[in-house]
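Researcher: Structure prediction, please.
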Amino acid sequence: MANPTCTYRIQLNRDFPFSSLEKILDYLYQLGVSTIYASPITQAIAGSSHGYDGTDPLRINPELGTLGDLERIINRMKSLGMDWIQDIVPNHMAIDRSNRWLSDLLERGNDSPYREHFDIDWDHPDPALRGRLMIPVLGNTLETCLEKKEISLEFSGSGLEIAYFDRRFPATWASYGWLFRGGNPPPPGMLSLPGPVQAIGLDAWEKIKMTWFRQLESNPRVMNWLKGEAERISQDPEKLRELLDAQRFSLCCWKETCSKINYRRFFIINSLICLNMERETVREDYHRFYLDLYEKGLISGLRVDHLDGLQDPEGYLNWLRLRFGPDCFIVVEKILTGDELLSAQWPIQGTTGYEFLGTLNQLFTDRKGAREILEFYGRLTGTNESYTDLTYVRKYNFLHHHMGGELDNLVRLASLLDPVHGGLETSSIKGSLAAWMSWMPVYRAYPGDGPLSGPDQDVLDQAFQAACHRNPELLPGLQWWQQMLHAPGPGMAAGDWVRLRRRLMQFTVPLAAKGIEDGVFYIYNPLIAHNEVGDTPGDPGKPREWFQERMIRRMEETPGGLNATSTHDTKRGEDARILIHYLSLIPGDWIRQVEDWMNLNQGLVIQHEGKRVPSRTDEYLIYQALVGGTPIGGPTDDAFRERVQGYLKKALREAGTVTSWDQPVAWYESGCASFLDSILDPRGSFWKKFQPWVLIIQEQAWPLSLSQLLIKLTAPGIPDLYMGSESWNQSFVDPDNRRMPDYATLESLARAGGLPEEITPWVRSGKIRIYLIRAVLQFRKKNPELFSKGSYIPLDPGPGWLGFIRQWKEIRVLVLAPFSVPVLPPFQEGFPDPSG
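Model: Predicted structure follows.
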């Protein structure tokens, strides 16, 4: 297997389809990119900006182009010696009319070949959900929506559908017979229903069905009757309710999922339903198209999205390796927390690189300066709550307020498998489960069909110990759960025990993601550059030796993993993070500036019913965001101010301390927006002080950005460039970080030319980054084994500098990079000569 020498991440959508990618292939080749690393390419919801809301894994997304377009592009890439890694999403699909598998399930029920493809609890205790899929799309209760006539029955070219505004859901096939037996008899000569509906593949069934629909449409009398009946029923709430009760789905208000749900969703996104990927038939059906692309040589590898959502990640990866063979390059999206290690048993090259990003973050933060800033942050905000405690509280509250239905489902499953559950009350079992899940120090463990592995047992025991310390009153329940995870309960079948343990792990993942990534990361703000998955915000700043140890281990264990510094999911771009890291090198100056700015802007702060707007935490967040986001060498124009406003609104709602997505608080959001507008005014007193200061920071910190880039390009692993990050990347969180790059400008910057005497224009334009990337990647292409197999030899070039040698046979390369202050290294006597 030949690993890529550099991947380039592309976010494909209707605004950047295959044809747009084709236009930049020569540019990427000249840059030194070996491999396109593409976002999902199969059919997704119309207008999807990312492709992770897939609806059909067997068809190319028509908004991107055709299979022929893809084949032409890849053949062009092959002529350049480039290949393609494809992002796949085996965890979930969209709840949408265009989801053929789900629509067929709703239409044909148990006669559908997809009746077991989706992770649905058909035996939910709520009578309204028994045998029916909950579809939480209504803005109000079903009864209210019926009274307001917001729900209707319609007949279209796709057949009978239940409509709620622009959402459509297929009526069950039995609905046609129900309609024909209604109060108004169908016209004479009405065609009988085609049948049978069972034991027919989806393609064949759709052909039969469409033929019948076309016959109906060809008869004006029949069509008038159908549309008339649909309109009559739509105007009769009782009749429509009778029809709805006969469907395979149950429409309900979206808010109900906070306390009740009968399907597994991606995180808490109601519109994404998860798949039963542990089933062989589901695996084969889902991967059929990708396997065909691989066998044809169109793709050379896979990137697996959200691996931790699967019930049995290791079993899935073993299957994937078996089906795609030993030469397929496979990396997984897996967030390693703290000292967590990737399982050596997984047959993959590595991860998508969040742990590498977190390791770099720690290197570029001065520990002493970070501590000084943390102490200031505590004084400023009036809180000394630790990151660990804040994380627990956030996860615990989120679980009860937004995942109550999932929590009840887990307790019910455990009670079914062990009805006695040690004689404990159900409330005790539920409370202890919530506490244990909230104290999980990593996203999940990976229980197999026997005793827990050492690492899994360690993290689970750590969670139980923390929960017992924090919640001693729950000790009996916690002990019951701990025993359950280590051994099956009395009379419990081994298969049920395995299923319960794995099921629990599937829900510690969304809890961690929503509690931390989309929660604490917007609340705990001493140094927001560390608020990235794979990092440890509560303990910033690690020594050089720690970094070197991690790189040695990376070379030994996952030399094929990606070295990511920016992705479509990072909270801010890599250069924004460096500028914020730099504050730890000048803590005294930073603290003085913040105090001065707060005094200067005091008149812009308002009070609303005793609440400060913005809060001190949010005001401090704004200043950091501006330090990282103010363009290097670029204008702070209206577009920039609009981007900052968009970021702030999202940050405030994700934090959920005053306003939220579920319950927006207009006075707080508008007050914060007004404050931001005022301080961004280029004529204002704040901006006149802030901009000159931040320009000085940029002049001091840009060499550290190049240093970060150089380490990424030469350290163990495969450098991954996120689209547009070859120039400065100071983006905010999505959707800002998913803006399309200006490739015309990037291509002009990439044109050959030696370093000029005056470097400033190259710095301001970002050409200096492109120059470095091109030089190193071209060298990597010529010496692939040096980086894929070569040893990693750490060096000590002096304070504030990282040094290492990459060596393969007679080839040696010396890498020197500042991580603290951009000064020349104090070369010591006996220091290795790079010319060797």
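Model: Residues 823-836 have pLDDT under 50 and may be disordered.
Researcher: Thanks, that helps.
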